[in-house]
Amino acid sequence: MTVTDNGAGINPVAATAQGRDPRLSGPPRTPAEAVRAVRRRVRAGELGPWPVIFGLIVIAVVFQSLTDSFLSPGNLTNLAMQIAAGGTIAVGIVFVLLLGEIDLSAGSVSGAAGALMAVLTVSHGWPAWLGILAALVMGALIGAFQGTIFAKIGVPSFVVTLGGLMGWLGLQLLILGPQGTINIPYDGFVAKLTNTFLPRVAGWVVTVGIVVVYFVFALLDLRRRSAAGLPGRGMVSLLIRTIGLGLLAGSVTAVLNQGRGVPLALVILVTIVVVFDLILRRTRYGRSIFAVGGNIEAARRAGLPVDRIRISVFALCSTLAAFGGILFASRGYSVGQSSGGSDTLLLAIAAAVIGGTSLFGGRGSTYSALLGILVLQSIQSGMLLVQIDTPIRYMVTAAVLVGAVILDSLSRRGRRSSGRE
């Protein structure tokens, strides 16, 4: 006997009448089916990225009505450059949140890694690539150390990384020494990471490449599902989604090309998001992360190496935090005692949560980091343009974060009531 979801749980009687579970019947094929599918997903707490996308539209409309420069090529170019560093750190935070844990040391790790890179490349004359590699290795070692204490000894991740927040800040100050601030050469490789713009033709090539890669992977997935006898979205749906992505990416490229061009920093961030999304969704390691975050005891009984997965995730988070610190140094042409401080950590965590990653583990994607950091930086940019004071900016950001957590809690309650969690 099959089952069906009536919005409040499983109803075997209705299942017998209808013959199959609508959740297993593939994509909707008529407008009526589409409406029913949307209602069912909303009742079950399956909101997806739509609240964030709707929020971005509202933000754009509000600030564009207050100042006509919000959607200008110049401001959007600056916005694209500003999200790279914080978005990179947020991707690492997403992985930790998928485990149902937290890493409070990411901001300090980014500052310490940036300081190490600057000292090695500027003060000691190391090649830029070697200094960057050393900073990334340091980040990985820090994450593995913290993850080992958490996974093997059993100290809560909150406590371990809270200690790391203070400890790695001390390491950052020790690395910088009495000089306090190290300037990055304007014409150096590190500075060019976030201050380089693609030629217009190259921007279009990258845009077309992104759309083609999406279509190829989606097509392969569709064929695999079809060969396995599983329902899929269908070729028409795939073409519509690909065209939609092409229009969106093409619009962004066209606007940015009216200014200085597509920033290399944006290409780096999008590449990180796409690569790690593929790792999460298409590799055994990624599926293991979801399994551990969803139900750790079930993961253990399934034979998954839970401790190794946890340690590796914390190492990955700190490595991405280190790279985020390098991007921050590149963007500001310097590393100082305040690097990685202020609201760096809070914005990274807020971006992951606002984008749709659950604080309770087992649900989320790297795209939530991209969407979340875009929301936060859009709000920050808009408020700066309309000259809103700093205290108000902090309060608005806090309100957005709390609202996202409330939405996550309500969605989780809906999934429980519908038997999906």
UniProtKB/TrEMBL annotation:
Entry keyword Transport: yes
Annotated segments matching region Disordered: 1-31
Location(s) in or outside the cell: Cell membrane
Keyword annotations of the record: Cell inner membrane, Cell membrane, Membrane, Sugar transport, Transmembrane, Transmembrane helix, Transport
Pfam family, one: BPD_transp_2
Membrane topology term: Multi-pass membrane protein
Name this polypeptide is given: Xylose transport system permease protein XylH
Organism: Luedemannella flava
